[in-house]
Amino acid sequence: MIDIKTIFLTIAINSFLMSFITYGVANFQKNKDEESNSKGVLDLTFSYAILGIGLILTALKEVFPVIITSGLGSSMMMVSIYLIMQSIVKIKMLENVQLKTFKLILLSYILIQFTLVLFDFPFLLRTIIFSIFSGFFFLMSFFFIKRKNSYIDEDKSTRFANFIIIAGFVGYFVGITFRSLVIIANGDFNINEQSLLAYTTANVVLSLVSFFGFSLISFGFLFLFWQRTQAQLLKISNTDWLTQALNRKAVEQLLNKMYPLAEKEKRLVSFAVIDLDNFKKVNDLYGHAMGDKVLKDFAALSKKIIKKDDLFARFGGEEFLIVFFNKTDDQIKQIMSELLTEFVKINFETNDGIKNFTFSAGISSVPNQRGYEEYYKVIKQADDSLYKAKHSGKNCYVFY
C-alpha cells in the first residue's frame, strides 16, 4: 500500500511541475513587456516550489532532524499558503491592500513553530497551530478573491474563475483540516497497528484532496491572470501613452455606448473642449521635453479634480476633452474654475526660469433647444466656444 511518505514525495514532484508551468507563463508575459502583470503568477510559482521543498522535508523525517522536517518543513508550507494570498492581491490588482501586517503574522508563525520544535512540544499542538494560521490565510484569501478590482469586469468568466478558486480553497482547507483531525484523534504518530491502515489511508486521501484543491486554486489564478492581461492590453490600447488619459478612440467608443443611454434616461451631458494656451511656443522656447511635462502635469491635475463618473481624454496634441454626466452648469463652473486656478499655480522650471501656463475651454451641453443632438455636433459647439475663449484673453472658459 502507498504510504504517506510516498504520497508526499509524489505531490512534491507535481508541485515542482506546476511551478515550472507557472514560471513559463510569467516569463512569457515578461518577455512581452508585461513584467508588472507577471508578479502575481511568479508568487504562485514560488508557492509551488516552496510547497514542494516543504513536503520533501516533511516526508524524509527519518533522514533529517526534527528541526528541519517539522520546523522548516511546516514553515515552508505556511509560506506557500501565504504566497497564494499575496498572488491574489497582485493578480486582482488590489492596490490598496497592505501586506505588511500579513507578513508579520507569517513571521510570528515561523517563530512559534521553531520554538515549539526546539522545546519538544507535542506534534499534536504543532498541528493545531498550523491549522489555525493556515485557516486565517485561507480566510483572507477567500475575502480578497471576492473583492472587485478596477480593471476586470465581473462577467461570467470571472465569476467562473472565482468559483474554481473558491472550490480549491474549500478542497485544500478541508484536506488539511480533516488531516489534522485524524492526527488529533490518534493523539500522535505513535498509534497502534490496528488503526495504522485506516490512519494511513485517511492521511493519503486527505493529502490528495489538499493538493487537488491547491491545483484548482492555481488554475483559477492562471485564468484570472489571463483575463488581467487582456484587460491590461485593452487599457493600453485605450490610453494615451504620455498622459495616461483616455485616447480619442476610447472616448468615442465609450460615447457610442453611453450617450444613447443618457439620452434615453434624459440625463444631462456636457462636453468641455480644452486647449493649452500658447503650447506651440512652449515647445519652441523650452523644448519638447518641457511640453511633454506640461501635458502630463495638466492631465494628472485634471484626473485629480474631475469626478470619477466623468470622462477625461486627450483628444489630440494639446487638446483635451472632458465629458460631464449629470452635472449642472454651476457644478461644471466650480470644477473648471478649480482646474484653472490650480493649473496656473504649477511652477515649471525652464531654461528661462520658473514659468506658469494656462488653458482655455469651451463648454456645451445637452439637452439644449434642439434636444439631444449627435454628440459630435455638441463637441463642435464646445469647440466653437473654445474659439471664443481664445479671443477673450485666454485662461478662461466659455459656455455655448
Fold and architecture overview:
- The protein is an alpha+beta fold.
- It has two domains: 4-237, Rhopdopsin 7-helix transmembrane proteins; 248-399, Alpha-Beta Plaits (2-Layer Sandwich).
- It is 67% helix and 10% strand.
- The protein has twelve helices and seven strands.
- The strands form two sheets. Strands 2-3-1-6-7 form a five-stranded mixed sheet, sandwiched between helices. It has a two-stranded antiparallel sheet with strand order 4-5.
- Helix 3 runs antiparallel to helix 4 (100-118) and helix 3 (66-91) packs parallel to helix 5 (123-146).
- It is elongated, with a radius of gyration of 30 Å.
- 36% of the residues are buried.
- Mean pLDDT is 81; it is low at 32-36 and 187-191.
What do we call the CATH topology of the largest domain? Rhopdopsin 7-helix transmembrane proteins
Helix coverage percent of residues? Answer: 55-70%
Biggest sheet features: 5 strands, mixed
First-to-last CA distance: 85 Å
Structural class of the helices, strands and pairings?
Answer: alpha+beta
Strand line-up in the sheet with most strands: 2-3-1-6-7
* Uncertain runs: 32-36, 187-191
Short characterization:
With 400 residues, this protein is an alpha+beta fold. It is built from 12 helices and 7 strands.
Key phrases:
two-stranded antiparallel sheet; five-stranded mixed beta sheet; 400 residues; 7 strands; 2 domains; Rhopdopsin 7-helix transmembrane proteins; 10% strand; alpha+beta; elongated; Alpha-Beta Plaits; 12 helices
